[in-house]
Amino acid sequence: RFEEDGFPVAVQKTVWYNQKEAAKVLGVAWLGAEEDALKVGFQAPSVPPTTRRSVLAMLNSLYDPLGFLLELSMKGRLIMRKIATYDWDTILPKDLCTEAADWMKEVQKAAEITKVPRLVDCKNLLVYVDASRYAWGVDVRSPEAIRVVARGGLFDKEKFAKWSIVS
């Protein structure tokens, strides 16, 4: 029915737990039965970003739904917040371009070396939660310090100015 209405339907894909070849499952790279680990996807642009549009495209090229590189993802969101006042195609100041290019290099290195086991014993989990004036984060790890999942976000700029624990 979907194909009749013009929606493309993906061909069924089967991934076996014991296959040797790497595969993508729901967009997350699995390295195959030999390593049996998950990997973050990041496709860096060939040219360092110089506009708000190109910085956003670069930030969105980091696909990390489980939050393995949460710290770098949050750093990228803070960079985007800094450049939010610029027009989409205006060349950014040199310091912001340098910061974005440095972020890109950091993520490239981290994405290359970060491998997380597919199977983690979840009998005992450690949950860390923290927040600041600008952001919040949750980190779930196994007792062996393997990150299982992490989430984080930035607080709304206007709202956090009103918050206080002092009355």
Automatic annotation (TrEMBL):
InterPro entries: Retrotrans_Pao. This is Uncharacterized protein.
